[in-house]
Amino acid sequence: MECTIDWGGPDGMLFVARTGSGHVTAMDGAPDGGGHNLAPRPMEMLLAGTGGCAAYDVVLILKRSRQAVTDCRVTLTAERAETDPKVFTKIHFAFVVSGKGLSQTAVERAVKMSHDKYCSASAMLAKTADITHSIQILEA
C-alpha cells in the first residue's frame, strides 16, 4: 500500500493525498491552525477510514451469512487526549443496519468479528482508545 501527500503551498495548510489505488483526496487544517477549512482534517480522515473499514466488514460478513442487508450506517463519536500527541482516547461506533428479517445475533456477530478480527484500523486505534459499539436494526 502506498500513498503520496503533497502540500498545497505556503498560503495555507491544504494537503492532497494520492493513493496507490489511484484516488485523490484533500485534507486541510482549521483556520486557527493556518488552514482554510477547505477539506476534512487529517484526524477526521483517520476516523472516517476506520468507520469505513468497520462498515465494510459488517456488510460483507452479513452478506456471507446470507442476511438480507439493505443498508448500513455507522456514526463514530470520538474523544481525543488534551495534550500532544492528541490521540483518540474514546471511540463509539453507532451502527444502524437495515434489512429484511435481519437476525439480531447475526448483526451483533458481524460487529464483534469486525472489531475483534478484521478491521485493521480499529485494531490500531484500540491501542490508545477505549472502543465501544451500539447496534440498531431497522426493518427494510
- Structural class by SSE content: alpha+beta
- Quote the average pLDDT: 97
Alpha-carbon Rg, integer: 17 Å
Number of helices: 3
How many beta-strand segments?
6
- Rough shape? elongated
| CATH-defined fold name of the largest domain | GMP Synthetase, Chain A, domain 3
Low-confidence stretches: none
Task: Summarize the amount of helix as a percent range.
Answer: 25-40%
Write the CATH architecture name of the largest domain: 2-Layer Sandwich
Q: Estimate the strand proportion.
A: 35-45%
Protein name: OsmC family protein
Organism: Parapusillimonas granuli
Helix and strand arrangement:
Elements: E1 3-7, E2 15-19, E3 24-27, H1 42-64, E4 68-80, E5 88-100, H2 104-118, H3 120-125, E6 130-139
Parallel strand pairs: 5-6
Antiparallel strand pairs: 1-2, 2-3, 4-5
Helix pairs in contact: 1-2
InterPro entries: KH_dom-like_a/b, OsmC/Ohr_fam, OsmC/Ohrsf
Protein name: OsmC family protein
